[in-house]
Amino acid sequence: MRTYSLLLIIFLVSYISFGQDTTVQTQEFEKIPESLNDSLYREDQIYVGLTFNLINNEPDEFSQNGFSGGLHLGFIRDMPINKKRNIAIGIGLGYSTNRYNSNLFINTDESGKTTYQIIDDDIDVDRNRLHTNLIEMPIQFRWRTSTPTEYTFWRIYTGVRLGYIFHHKSDFQGDGVTRVLKDIPELEKFRFAATLSIGNGSFNAFVMYNLNPLFNENAQINNDPINLQPIKFGIEFYIL
Fold first, then answer.
1. Going by fewer Cβ within 10 Å, which terminus of the chain is more open, N or C?
2. How is 52-96 classified by DSSP, letter by letter?
3. Over 50: is that where the pLDDT of 28 sits?
4. ∠ Cα 16 21 27 (to 5°)
5. How much is the pTM?
6. What keywords are annotated for this sequence in UniProt (predicted)?
């Protein structure tokens, strides 16, 4: 018990001393030369994005309908690589959720094999969606016009985004039939995409092009691969 009491006293004394030092440092902060200030300067640690998801490299008669959207957010470690600290490398970790509305019906046959077909126009469809949830790792090359005291600036961030689909679901409802699939073997779970973000201040235009198709070569319609390569357009917000 005496040992615990002694440790508690040491902790309290250290905490009080640290708090006093912090107060002094805060009061003296304005006296620190800007050159020293620059050595700690970083930008854009948290990102949030909203996108409209389009499909490229699609099969014949494939079409999207309704709104296909996405949300992505995460944290990026900003690592400046020049003296002005306006050029940096960013590496982070994030989460993304996406929805694709289309006329591609995903089902299984009696043997459990996944089947794919284009829904006829005369079928009354209430809902036909593919949902994906991913863990992502953005890697960026960053250029900006910011300074330690300037928070509204131009930025151009380009790079790649690596992802893994940890959860997915195909959801169909129409003509009195409901079909939900949560295991699609042909889905390419590892994702590779090129990204570009350009903007000034809070709002930034964002585009993301998937470099590999959404399905592998085993997903076919009439012996032709489905492919499907998502392209995302939207806005992205960066927060310190």
1. N
2. EEEEESPPTT--B-S--EEEEEEEEEEEE-STTS-EEEEEEEEEE
3. no
4. 130
5. 0.80
6. Signal
